[in-house]
Amino acid sequence: MAKTPSPFRPLNISVLTVSDTRSLAEDTSGDALISLLTEAGHTLQDRQIVKDDVYAMRAVVSNWIADSKTHVVLITGGTGFYSRDSTPEAITPLLDKEVDGFGELFRQLSYEEIGTSTIQSRALAGLANKTLIFCLPGSTGACRTAWNGIIKEQLDARHRPCNFVTMLLGPLPEGQGA
Predict the structure, then answer these.
(1) Domain extents for the chain?
(2) pTM: predicted TM-score of the whole model, two decimal places
């Protein structure tokens, strides 16, 4: 008996831009992520911009992690090596588990676009309280690379052999797909 294909299951995704200089009007990376996630069929749960401050980031992300309506958090900015770049330091302590391969795969894809400059990205991902968190560089191009090359498929229940959707939403009720 053939398995019934899994249906698409939309996720609620929050977007956080980390920047000391951008406002909503200049937030092209946040805009790109919102456009990409909604085009894929997901829902924007919330959007915020915070300064590159460890405690400001943790406050926003902690609230999203505690909110059962938020399934995924996309963070753009603060993953480089400048003195103010502190997204990995802010988010790592909140994670229950890291998605170890995300940073490596992102840098592999990014190498094709920007060469060895990709080593200056500390992109990472992990799970916290059944919320998937991706920390991406602040450039619009890097956000598109991460979404199109990795995140989009992993947030689609139809992607095989595995994806994160069942982990985030739980299994489908009996008779509603694989």
Answers:
(1) 12-167
(2) 0.94
